[in-house]
């Protein structure tokens, strides 16, 4: 027998290198509050089912609370020789309440315990991330509201394409983040399931009440297969995939902000409080915040790949490989929360150079499509209208002019049906207003969508599969 909680069948102490290699308490300690919540719920159920006495349960619950307080205060003695947070807490409990503490692990295994803890942790973090996404969307709609009349050039292939309201561009990101929140809520529906009772992998012979445990923890359902429940990490992978999409959306936005802040664009300026300087070039003000958010996207994708790879080829049921789920998950949560927080602050600090955006929006023949549509309204097939407009554009390029500088007699040389009203049609503001369909750029449409988003953001959100925990 060795000094380990599982040391009964061992004749030799664990090698120090193995102890260091297998320990996880230095990172899974962040599961501590959920481990304690889960243990209290389990313990109460054991008493309710008369598997332990209520006096014993009360002692254990009091002990768990005291341990929880030590952890919160920072006085808890974390010991790597007890491997993980689960055994650290159980050992400390026994130190505090005596041998009765050893009854807590009745009808339970670390395999279902760690699955429960991770689910409770992730439920909590999804709620926080949802709040951060909501705050980001609020910052976006506020900025869109402030700059609702500003026109900017829209790009395809990073070439000037068509004028658009700046607010429409901002709200495009709002749509992405709204979908991100839907995805997280969907994922939460599968996170919020109660795995305890699965034991090591085959369930338990004790007459436990799994639903009662779920109810106490505010979880809607219990898992349906003990082998699946101890080896399932799909919900973490789903979360990592959702997080990857959020980072991807942030990163695209970052890329645009970096371009927009560069001298040749000069569309926006990020506040001094969200930029950094150069150690050698005194004139520099660098967009390091969006660069870093863009950079951190890679590591979140990496975590998704890492866990998918860890799971690939794992036989049922629990294998220690699964301990490798935590660091990618924790780092993703930290990276995502950090990125969302700083990004929202940066967005609020943004100054918009409206005149510059509007000047560029009028360049690059951004209303050439409107001229083609004008000709279509005169009866030309679109292909032909496209052709004629292309010739006009080439004429402009060769004579160094923009579309509005073409005289009416010159226009008529390209097509006799062109009239004076063509100058209205090729005005960027008119071009924007003309796209008066759902999802289009007309100011009335943009304002309507803005109002809808403002309204939906003013309502509190609820993620799926969670209830208010009972009596706590
Ligand atoms: N620390 C382990 C993990 O994170 C807990 C479960 C360990 N179970 C076992 N049989 N070794 O996965």
Structural summary, described in words:
With 472 residues, the chain is mostly helical. It has 19 helices and 6 strands. The strands form 3 sheets. A two-stranded antiparallel sheet has the order 1-2. Strand 1 and strand 2 form a beta hairpin. The protein is elongated, with a radius of gyration of 30 Å. The mean pLDDT is 96.
Write a short abstract of this structure:
The protein is mainly alpha-helical and about 475 residues long. It has helices at about 15-20, 25-30, 30-50, 55-75, 85-95, 110-145, 165-190, 210-215, 225-230, 235-260, 290-310, 325-350, 355-360, 370-375, 380-400, 410-415, 420-425, 430-435, 445-460, and strands at about 150-155, 160-165, 195, 220, 270, 350.
